[in-house]
């Protein structure tokens, strides 16, 4: 299964996977507006991959089959302040 990966010019570390290059018909218009004008990153053959860097390969394949696209969001930012408070409470 080939897919094309685009990055968002508006949202750092946000990627859109679609089945065919420049075919955004399956992507909701509201998502495209938030995403911005997609910037081509690469074309991947998912059948030749055993994993992806930031996403679950099985979930990507399923989303492409079911809805025609997969949106990869950046990992959540660690709340360092909360971690520090918890650490201080445990050691006080």
TrEMBL record:
Residues 1-85 form the YcgL domain. SUPFAM superfamilies: YcgL-like. PROSITE patterns: YCGL (PS51648). It comes from the Bacteria. This is YcgL domain-containing protein Q3O60_00485.
């Amino acid at each position: 299964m080939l897919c094309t990966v685009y990055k968002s010019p508006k949202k750092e570390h946000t990627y859109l996977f679609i089945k065919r290059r420049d075919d955004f018909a399956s992507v909701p218009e509201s998502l495209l507006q938030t995403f911005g004008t997609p910037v081509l990153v690469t074309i991947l053959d998912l059948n030749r991959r055993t994993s992806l860097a930031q996403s679950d390969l099985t979930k990507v394949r399923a989303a492409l089959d079911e809805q025609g696209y997969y949106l990869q969001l950046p990992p959540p930012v660690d709340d360092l302040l909360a971690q520090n408070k918890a650490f201080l409470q445990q050691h006080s």
